Amino acid sequence: MIGLVATFIAFLAVGFLILRYLRMHAREVWAFAIITCIGFVLWASIVIHSPLDLNRAIGWMIDSIH
């Protein structure tokens, strides 16, 4: 799990550096950060042997908005 967190931090840092070098807009940076965090949550749930049902999570988010 420590390796997963270290890899996540490394990819996140490199991604932010690349986005900064390319002078991307704030929305693109936020989209990158959110997609990367969702990927981390999914991989972490697989590593701890409790896979996250993404459909149920999205449904819960949509229901909580209304």
Could you characterize the architecture of this molecule?
This protein has 66 residues and is an all-alpha fold. The protein is built from three helices and no strands. It has one domain (2-65). The chain has helices at 2-21, 26-47, 54-65.
Key attributes of the depicted protein:
66 residues, mainly alpha, 0% strand, flat
Task: State the gist of this model.
By secondary structure, this protein is an all-alpha fold. The chain has helices spanning 2-21, 26-47, 54-65.
Q: Average pLDDT, to the nearest integer? A: 86
Which secondary-structure class do the elements indicate?
Answer: mainly alpha
N-end to C-end Cα span: 35 Å
Element string (H = helix, E = strand): HHH
Query: How many DSSP helices?
Result: 3
Q: Would you report the number of β strands? A: 0
Shape: flat
Rounded to an integer, what's the Rg over CA atoms? 14 Å
Biggest sheet overview = none
Transmembrane segments: 6-22, 29-48
Keywords: Membrane, Transmembrane, Transmembrane helix
